[in-house]
């Protein structure tokens, strides 16, 4: 007998609740609004330098030479591809488990996404990477560290070296992550970050491009829309380098506003504390989920230091109807779960089969198989330990209930079949 949902404890909170903006950030934002000077550049010299200072601080945090702040993570990815000289129609390799703005950024930059398979632990499959790189002749790999799952970067870098691939990292969910002690966002020729509300840093909208090459940095600054005011950047190559590109680099108007930078600077200072708490939330829920034999958590290698703002797990051996029943049961207890296997794209969640704009792709059977059981729970920073335990308990109870219902149905089916003579 299934326990009645109404008798079980409910999760009474909104998992989409972001952290409040720090008071120091609010004070600075108010001062900027009183001045009205919200554009990052000033014609008569810098009106304020919030964006320029943030760029310096972000580059230092990542250990990279240059940072260009822009208006979204997708814009940062598009700029990264532009400064790597992406040509119209050029193929760009990208892992199939990512968010829609990633294939979107490739198309925005004029390229053509070539989707690469992932493995059971949600990260890129290097054997398929090699095959697709050879078949497409691609020059660039856009590696999305989707939901903070970090691929074996030793294997990825070895494949890039062997195939002559330039690496762009999508670090929208990987701020503070590392592989073998090296910061994620420091492996690629360029790396992009997002400051959209549901990432580690929240300005509503915002993005960062980090890189080390002076010419590419100059081009990114000019493309981002610096007019002739690029001297107001503090994280920038020498003026002669920028001058080389000034008349050949179009302005794409992708700037970050001063207001966004004002909101972000105090958050960046507080990031190590936040990232540690977020991982503690992730690990506590993970320990609870590991108790169910129907829930599979990805294996995370020793060399990976992840930085989670959400929890992913796979339902082992459930079919579509069973997963729907599972999701319904969790929702009935106040736990909304996102599912990458849904037939229609929904909310922020979509999968390669929904991206018809990406153009014809070879089939991705392994990616589809992984995504068809992949569930995703948002974990706000304010989640208490008790709430973490309740989240895990709700998932485990729902999985057990669905599995028990199936076992019972199987018994009845076997009994019926057994009663018919001549049938096995
Ligand atoms: C959010 C996100 C992006 C895009 O960031 P925006 O700032 O929303 O453009 C790119 N990749 C991944 C994996 C993301 O989660």
Short description:
This protein is α/β, with parallel strands linked by helices. It has helices at residues 23-35, 50-62, 73-83, 101-108, 126-136, 153-163, 214-225, 239-245, 258-269, 271-289, 320-332, 365-371, 385-419, and strands spanning 66-70, 91-95, 112-116, 140-144, 166-170, 178-179, 182-183, 190-194, 207-211, 295-296, 304-305, 310-315, 338-339, 374-378. The chain has two domains: 23-269, Type I PLP-dependent aspartate aminotransferase-like (Major domain) (Aspartate Aminotransferase, domain 2, 3-Layer(aba) Sandwich), CATH 3.40.640; 271-418, Aspartate Aminotransferase, domain 1.
What would your notes on this structure say?
This protein has 424 residues and is an alpha/beta fold. It folds into two domains: 23-269, 3-Layer(aba) Sandwich (Aspartate Aminotransferase, domain 2); 271-418, Aspartate Aminotransferase, domain 1, CATH 3.90.1150. The protein is built from 13 helices and 14 strands. The strands form three sheets. Strands 1-9-8-5-4-2-3 form a seven-stranded mixed β-sheet, with helices on both faces. The protein has a four-stranded antiparallel β-sheet with strand order 10-12-14-13. Strands 7-6-11 form a three-stranded antiparallel β-sheet, with no helix packed on it. Helix 6 links the parallel strand 4 and strand 5. Helix 5 (126-136) packs parallel to helix 6. It starts with 22 loop residues before the first helix and ends in a 5-residue tail after the last helix. The relative contact order is 0.16. The structure holds pyridoxal-5'-phosphate. Pyridoxal-5'-phosphate binds next to helix 3 and helix 4.
């Amino acid at each position: 007998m299934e326990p009645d949902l109404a008798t079980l404890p409910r999760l009474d909170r909104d998992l989409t609740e972001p952290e409040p903006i720090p008071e120091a950030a609010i004070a600075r934002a108010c001062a900027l609004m009183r001045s009205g000077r919200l554009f990052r550049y000033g014609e008569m010299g810098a009106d304020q330098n919030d964006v320029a200072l943030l760029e310096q601080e972000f580059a230092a945090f990542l250990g990279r030479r240059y940072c260009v702040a822009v208006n979204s993570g997708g814009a940062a990815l598009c700029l990264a591809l532009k400064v790597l000289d992406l040509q119209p129609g050029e193929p760009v390799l990208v892992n199939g488990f990512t968010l829609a703005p990633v294939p979107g950024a490739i198309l925005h930059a004029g390229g053509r996404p070539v989707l690469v398979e992932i493995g059971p632990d949600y990260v890129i499959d290097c054997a398929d990477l090699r095959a697709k790189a050879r078949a497409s002749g691609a020059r660039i790999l856009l590696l999305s560290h989707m939901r903070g799952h970090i691929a074996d970067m030793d294997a990825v870098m070895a494949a890039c070296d062997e195939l002559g691939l330039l690496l762009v990292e999508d670090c929208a969910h990987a701020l503070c992550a590392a592989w073998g002690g090296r910061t994620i966002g420091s492996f690629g020729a360029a790396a992009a970050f997002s400051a959209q509300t549901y990432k580690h840093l929240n300005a509503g909208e915002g993005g960062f491009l980090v890189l080390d090459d002076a010419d590419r940095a100059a081009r990114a600054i000019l493309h981002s829309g610096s007019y002739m005011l690029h001297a107001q950047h503090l994280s920038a190559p020498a003026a002669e380098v920028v001058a080389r590109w000034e008349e050949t680099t179009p302005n794409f108007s992708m700037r970050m506003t001063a207001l966004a930078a004002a909101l972000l600077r105090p958050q960046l200072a507080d990031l190590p504390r936040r990232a540690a708490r977020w991982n503690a939330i992730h690990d506590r829920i993970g320990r609870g989920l590991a108790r169910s034999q129907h829930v599979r958590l990805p294996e995370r290698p020793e060399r990976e230091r992840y930085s989670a703002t959400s929890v992913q797990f796979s339902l082992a051996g459930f079919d579509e109807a069973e997963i729907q029943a599972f999701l319904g049961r969790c929702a009935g207890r106040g736990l909304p779960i996102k599912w990458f296997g849904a037939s229609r794209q929904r909310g922020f969640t979509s999968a390669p089969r929904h991206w018809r704009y990406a153009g014809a792709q070879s089939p991705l059977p392994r990616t589809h198989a992984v995504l068809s059981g992949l569930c995703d729970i948002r974990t706000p920073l304010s989640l208490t330990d008790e709430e973490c335990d309740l989240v895990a308990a709700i998932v485990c109870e729902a999985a057990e209930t669905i599995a028990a219902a199936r076992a019972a149905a199987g018994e009845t089916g076997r009994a019926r079949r057994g009663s018919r003579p001549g049938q096995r």
